[in-house]
């Protein structure tokens, strides 16, 4: 069992029968979905809300019942990965391109558990490019406004053209190098017209479960 698997396996133990569960997107969340699928096959009954079309397809393949976000009034536990986590448990997310739905689901959850391997723990956020979801109309103007905040922006690409999110938007990957105040930057980014949402998750995580290369797991809250 590698570090990602170890973290996912530990987090899934918090899921109880009858819960409504948020399912994240990405390589670590993949393992959580696999382990949840095993528990469903053993008889556990849960309802899940997926943060992306990719996650929904995977969950259905694993036998997990999927519900629309608006068909539930709350989510008991949301399990998702992260691209960077600082010592205050602030996050950068969105490497998988699902940051908007991930943030909506996390915000609607009673408990938000982040799973990651040890490489994602950092002293200060910003080495990983911050994903910012923007609408296609006037995207170059939006990009220039973002650059004024002190970053280098790059349109995320897929095959022959721009990457498009499940919401039909573009993602700009913004290299800040160092983000000293995630809360302030989050507000500055979201005040720019054309920005839909950004990948800073500030003071949202209830707990972080970190897997290590030797198979051990540590929890931070």
How many domains make up the 3D coordinates?
A: 2
For the secondary structure, the number of strands is 16
Q: What's the CATH architecture of the largest domain?
A: 3-Layer(aba) Sandwich
Shape by Cα distribution: globular
CATH structural fold name of the largest domain:
Rossmann fold
Low-confidence stretches: none
- Widest sheet: strand ordering: 3-2-1-4-7-15-16
Question: Count of helices?
Answer: 6
Mean pLDDT, all residues: 96
- The secondary-structure class comes to alpha/beta
What would your notes on this structure say?
- The chain has helices spanning 3-12, 27-41, 53-61, 99-107, 139-147, 182-190, and strands at residues 20-23, 47-50, 65-66, 75-80, 84-85, 91-92, 109-117, 130-134, 152-155, 157-158, 161-162, 170-175, 195-198, 200-201, 207-211, 217-220.
- The chain is of the alpha/beta class and 221 residues long.
- It has two domains: 3-120 and 202-220, Rossmann fold, CATH 3.40.50.1360; 130-198, ACT domain (Alpha-Beta Plaits), CATH 3.30.70.260.
- Strands 3-2-1-4-7-15-16 form a seven-stranded mixed β-sheet. It has a four-stranded antiparallel β-sheet with strand order 9-12-8-13, covered by helices on one side. Strands 5-6-14 form a three-stranded antiparallel β-sheet, covered by helices on one side.
- The two termini are 24 Å apart.
- The relative contact order is 0.19.
């Amino acid at each position: 069992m590698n570090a990602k698997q170890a973290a996912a396996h530990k987090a899934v133990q918090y899921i109880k029968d009858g819960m409504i569960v948020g399912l994240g997107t990405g390589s670590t969340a993949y393992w959580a979905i696999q382990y949840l699928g095993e528990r469903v096959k053993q008889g556990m009954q849960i309802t899940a809300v997926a943060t992306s079309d990719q996650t929904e397809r995977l969950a259905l393949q694993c036998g997990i019942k999927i519900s629309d976000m608006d068909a539930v009034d709350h989510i008991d536990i949301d399990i998702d990965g992260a691209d960077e986590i600082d010592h205050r448990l602030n996050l950068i997310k969105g490497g998988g391109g699902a940051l908007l739905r991930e943030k909506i689901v996390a915000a609607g959850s009673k408990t938000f558990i982040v799973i990651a391997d040890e490489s994602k723990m950092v002293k200060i956020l910003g080495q990983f490019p911050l994903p910012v979801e923007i609408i296609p109309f006037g995207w170059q103007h939006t990009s220039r406004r973002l650059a004024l905040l002190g970053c280098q922006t790059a349109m995320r690409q897929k095959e022959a053209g721009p990457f498009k999110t499940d919401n039909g938007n573009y993602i700009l990957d913004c290299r800040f190098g160092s983000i000293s105040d995630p809360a302030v930057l989050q507000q500055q980014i979201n005040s720019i017209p054309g920005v839909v949402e950004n990948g800073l998750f500030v003071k949202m995580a209830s707990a972080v479960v970190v897997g290590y290369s030797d198979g051990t797991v540590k929890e931070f809250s």
